[in-house]
Amino acid sequence: MSGTAHPRHELDEIIHAPVRLSIVAALANAEKADFRFLRDTLEVSDSLLSKHIVTLEGAGYVKVEKAFVGKRAKTWLSLTDAGRAAFARYTAVLRQITEGITGA
After folding, report:
1. For position 60, which CATH number holds?
2. Residues 17, 52: contact at Cβ < 8 Å?
3. Among residues 34, 73, 90, 96, which one has the fewest Cβ atoms lying within 10 Å of its Cβ?
4. Ordered alpha helix ranges (H), 1-104
């Protein structure tokens, strides 16, 4: 057994929750996304999506912008630079886990 820890210990617990991972992955492929689009795409309720967005925003991973389009309130979400970097690290660790640990 080597002295290094298993790569799973490097997984970002903020991103690791399935809904938050889905949010970050969706936002990684877009400049920004509408709240309703994310809700429908991820098949979650408004309240569940809101709860996870608050966590991601608190971690500095997601930026929330609210505006009116006509008479309707719209919420736009985007990844911050910190969020993009965290997602890149997260996916790198997943690749390390799924591709196997070298030296075994």
Report:
1. 1.10.10.10
2. yes
3. 73
4. 13-16, 18-28, 35-42, 46-58, 81-98
Q: State pTM to two decimals.
A: 0.87
Q: Which two tokens stand for residue 97?
A: 């886990």
40-83 pLDDT, tens digit per residue, is 999 999 999 999 999 999 999 999 999 988 888 899 999 999 99
Nearest to 74 by CA among 88, 82, 64: 64
Domain residues for the domain of 69 are 9-97
Contact partners, residue 42, CB within 8 Å, separation at least 6: 19, 22, 23, 26, 49
Is there a domain that residue 4 lies in? no
